[in-house]
Amino acid sequence: xxxxxxxxxxxxxxxxxxxxxxxxxxxxxxxxxxxxxxxxxxxxxxxxxxxxxxxxxxxxxxxxxxxxxxxxxxxxxxxxxxxxxxxxxxxxxxxxxxxxxxxxxxxxxxxxxxxxxxxxxxxxxxxxxxxxxxxxxxxxxxxxxxxxxxxxxxxxxxxxxxxxxxxxxxx
Length: 171
Description:
Elements: H1 2-10, H2 14-19, H3 25-66, H4 72-91, H5 107-137, H6 143-170
Helix pairs in contact: 1-3, 3-4, 3-5, 4-6, 5-6
């Protein structure tokens, strides 16, 4: 999390470094940097979940080739939830509104939003593990439970993301 913020702040041009010395403007620059880091982080999260979506699509293709067609609809529920999650993450509000916007998010709330976004990366591992379980369960009695686990794991990702939205709208 700190690495992304440092990358953004390290890439500041000379003008921003001078302007950050103007009273009151430094806080604005800091928030803009956090906003840029938040966007970069969310793009990374969306890209990782895109990879998971591709894995689920490959599992669906395997189901067809292995004759597990009766489970395709259930697996499609997980795929749709992952796609919904990706779309929400990509279209999410930045961690801070513009300098002249009426509704602003304060520094503490911004830090919480950034923490939510960083935690989204941890969710990748949980979904990845759930997909592993589905793949390992093909041809066994445990397949329906593995698919249900995958669907509920992805649903938890959506719930976590909705909590992020609550932080943004409560500001």
